Amino acid sequence: MKRKKNKKFPTKYILLIMTVFCVIIIFSSVTKEVSSGPVGKVAGAVILPMQKGLNRIGSALNLRADNLASKKELQEENSQLKEQIADLEEQLSRVSLEQYELESLRELYKLDQSYDQYDKVAANVVGKETGNWFSTFLIDKGSKDGIEIGDNVIADGGLVGIVTDTGNNYAKIRAIIDDTSNVSATNLSTSDNCIVNGSLRTMNERQQLEVSDMRDKDNKAKAGDQLVTSSISDRYLPGIPIGYLTEVNEDSNKLTKSGYLATVVDFEHLEKVLVIQHTKDYSDALDN
Amino acid sequence: MRRKIFIAVTIIICFLLQSTVFQRLSFVSISPNLLIVVTAAFGFMRGRKEGLFVGFFCGLLMDVFFGPVLGIYALLYMYVGFINGIFKKIFYPEDVKLPIFLMAVSDLSFNIIIYFGMFLFRGRFEFGYYFVHVMIPELVYTMIVAVVIYFILLKINQKLEEIEKRSAKKFV
């Protein structure tokens, strides 16, 4: 019986039909920005609760592994941290002075344009991209909770990424460390604009991102400068901290500079994120 | 029916493990690719047709949750399943070399295609770097996990085939 069936409809044709089917899906999702739709709904309802549960086991295992870090390492880290604290304390006193100044200036100008004013939703990270090429992840809040495509996501006071797809009870987020991600940024100390490129390679090599196209006429940009999202970006709200420059090099064209940036957010141990419920124009958000 | 439920459960379990537990257990931010193991295993254990469908659904699941474009992983996994299915003719459960070899080649070629399709055309030309730092580590890690998963799948598959044979005899 079975063999007869196979003869009637050879696997070759099934392959052909399915291939055409896939190609159609790919084209429709590229051109019309069709999100996962009904399949996403069903899958979200079935998979998400299980993912949440399993993720807890995963983080427990992770903690166990972290506990095994040796004593010597910890001592070394301790002394390093103490130095860092001294540094930071010094910085803090300086910053608090500046903060005071800033506040008084803001009051003068009534400039309360930071991202604090928008509504935010807290969400848990429940799954990470299954391959090793991209950095996207899932959170356990979706369109039901008011999350829209194009919403910015932050954690630990820094930019995490952008929502690229939503389901009923989940949302897909592309992190800024993803290889396809580009963020327009501003250097706080020189107010020059630049682009922060996500890069698999620099993430692997030094846990940092690439910074490119930085204009710096006065040669003032230096390691340690803070970069925030720029106001000219059409996807990211202005003023969200991205990270700190760790290296600045002059490009061969002698006009722009490039460098590396350490993110504020610890992407390795990302568990809770905040989604800002306010989008800039997001018509291009899915282009990449 | 029994077989369909078994396959669905296997795919879902592997997807869940891969997106949660194994992401936490990643070494140097590399994690194994369980779904390719499942797809390849069903391909050479059960033939082209089943490999094709198992691959399609594995890929679709990845597409819905993580894919950059809907349908791309479904297409890739489908071909992986189909091509592995061709080797059913020379597959014997007692021989471990062929399955391991097939799974390794599947994983590697899958990654190479992803590199060419989604990285090369964006100006990331350092194939050597990505080969050494992404593909090879993933291959090694995947193979270690694959040995375990493969034997579990093989045992369950043999049980299922026995049951199916028995019920087929009843009807005769």
Structural description of this entry:
The complex is a heterodimer of chains A (288) and B (172). Chain A has 288 residues and is of the alpha+beta class. Chain A has three domains: 30 residues; 194 residues, Thrombin, subunit H (Beta Barrel); 40 residues, no CATH class. Chain A is built from five helices and twelve strands. In chain A, the strands form two sheets. Chain A has a six-stranded antiparallel beta barrel. Chain A has a six-stranded antiparallel barrel with strand order 6-7-8-11-10-9. In chain A, a hairpin with a 5-residue loop joins strand 10 and strand 11. The longest helix of chain A has 39 residues. By secondary structure, chain B is mainly alpha-helical. In chain B, 78% of the residues lie in helices and 0% in strands. In chain B, helix 3 runs antiparallel to helix 4 and helix 3 packs across helix 6. The two termini of chain B are 19 Å apart. Classes of the chains: A alpha+beta (288), B mainly alpha (172). At the A-B interface, helix 2, helix 3, strand 1 and helix 5 of A face helix 1, helix 2, helix 4, helix 5 and helix 6 of B. Chain A: This is Cell shape-determining protein MreC. Chain A: One of its GO terms (cellular component) is plasma membrane.
